[in-house]
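Figure 2 data, in text form.
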Amino acid sequence: MNHYTPDSFSMTQSVGFSITKARNVLVTEMDAALKELDITSQQMGVLLSMRQGIATTPFELSKLLGIDTGLMTRMLDKLETKGLLARSRSVEDRRVVNLKLTKEGEAVAAQLPAIAPVVLNRRLKKFTKAEFEELRRLLNKFLAD
C-alpha cells in the first residue's frame, strides 16, 4: 500500500520528517544531559552496548547502532583518546578488532542508566502507558525489514 503520492506528498507532513525531527530533539536533549560526562548520545550508545555485552567489535557496533564504519572508527578513536575504551587485535583473526571498556569507561557507562531515562521520560510524559507501548510497537514495525 502506498501512503504517499507525488501530488499528496508534503515534506513537513511526512513520516520521515517527523522521525528525523524527533531524533534531533532527543539527541539535543540527551547530549545536554551527558555534557558533564563529556560524551555524546552516540557515544552513549557505544558505551552501553559494550557494557551490556551486546557488541564487542566495531562491526557489531556499526550494525547495531546503524552507524557507518567510517563514523564508527572516528567515534571509537575519540572514546579511546578519552581513555574510555581500549582496542586489541583478535588472536584468532588479526582482521578483527576487539573492544573493551577501561576502568574509566566502566565508570562512565555505569552512570548512563540513571541519565537516559530522565531525558526519555521527560519527552514521553504526555503519553499513557498504552500510547507508549503502541509507539514502541509502531516504531519496531517501521524498522522491521
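Caption note: The chain has a mean pLDDT of 95.
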